[in-house]
């Protein structure tokens, strides 16, 4: 959907007198005809729960049967995380049917992995694969028709794969609103984009309206009658078997599928709603998403920074200062959590997939001058086109720690060298004593001693101090030149991986 430069907007008041639980198909009033009749909006939503029907009075076996339609139409980041959240949805899985429409071959591995492990949890699962060659319009029409033909389908929950639905109770909340069509409000992080419009132009396209910003920023909360919803919404199955029997609800020669659907809904006099009574989540940016790597989500630190952080930054990172999680195993050496296990695994797997490990010789054409005094078996970040993302990581997550631990020192996290080192007993088991060519060095353990390898660690000779049991995902930070002469202790079994950065101002 096109993103608009939005200011303020005006929607119909939450659950206004124009609305009702039953589809108002018998009324001649539609959204377009009542929109000009609206007066000033009420400051508070006093009737948001008029049609509310709690599920708490029901046994789980009495819950409505919900068909969830999942639509994958383009390469999208964090698809495996989408399915992890789907599993966490607080609703009895034996009352859920899944229809997965996957048009993107790149995501077959993610879909298959989810279904292989969890398919049997759900009442039924149907999957349409890329080889079906079904476009978005056809897949959505077919999904509705599958609910329409199933007399047990009480609700259809439509979810696009780029929706990050973080509220585990979202489905319950929407059902309890007891409305014909209701969407949870989701936004795009840092922007005024959302999955609803507050008003229409005379020709049925987007128009600015007064209270849009207040609703999107949740300065006003309620259940809002709107002319357009997209990306994620709940629809009563009974509607598809009564007012919405037309198979081609998403078809149009001039409108996008979502606009065509909403136009057809409005023309039937059926009202749509969006709720911001709760926070539900956001929508991912799919711009610039490349599929040429093994773990493409690693490259999403710019486009989807919050999702990248949630997946790859250690959950205790934000507590480092408050809870004094930084340890000092040796003088001026700081040790703190930085990466999740998944981040470590993905980096290692990415490097092994690339596979062009250096030979560990002194002659190295990859570096300025072509000579490495203390060579390692490694792959540089720029060899896998990860140097910009790595610099962003250092700037956002390492630099703040550096400035706290080394008072008076400020860094832009520039680096000449950033690389992943591999230690193996039969390849390069250790590293002789040396100084690093850096102001300070970051050394992140990417796998687990005792599980993945034996031995290893780092010894600072001047202080006769060693860190012999590096923790996976934790970073060692120490000065590079002059003071911290150190060596890599022998790896005696298995394979050890570390990510090293020589950082200068």
Automatic annotation (TrEMBL):
EC number of the protein: 1.14.11.4
Residues annotated as domain Fe2OG dioxygenase: 414-505
InterPro entries: Collagen_mod_GT25, IPNS-like_FE2OG_OXY, Nucleotide-diphossugar_trans, Oxoglu/Fe-dep_dioxygenase_dom, Pro_4_hyd_alph, Procol_lys_dOase
Compartment(s) where it occurs, according to its Swiss-Prot or TrEMBL record: Rough endoplasmic reticulum membrane
Pfam families: 2OG-FeII_Oxy, OGFOD2-like
Membrane topology, as annotated: Peripheral membrane protein
MF terms (GO), sorted A to Z: iron ion binding; L-ascorbic acid binding; procollagen-lysine 5-dioxygenase activity
Cofactor(s) needed by this chain: L-ascorbate; Fe(2+)
Catalysed transformations (reactions): L-lysyl-[collagen] + 2-oxoglutarate + O2 = (5R)-5-hydroxy-L-lysyl-[collagen] + succinate + CO2
GO cellular component terms given for this protein: rough endoplasmic reticulum membrane
The entry's keywords: Dioxygenase, Endoplasmic reticulum, Glycoprotein, Iron, Membrane, Metal-binding, Oxidoreductase, Signal, Vitamin C
Chief location category: endoplasmic reticulum
Protein name as annotated: Procollagen-lysine,2-oxoglutarate 5-dioxygenase 1
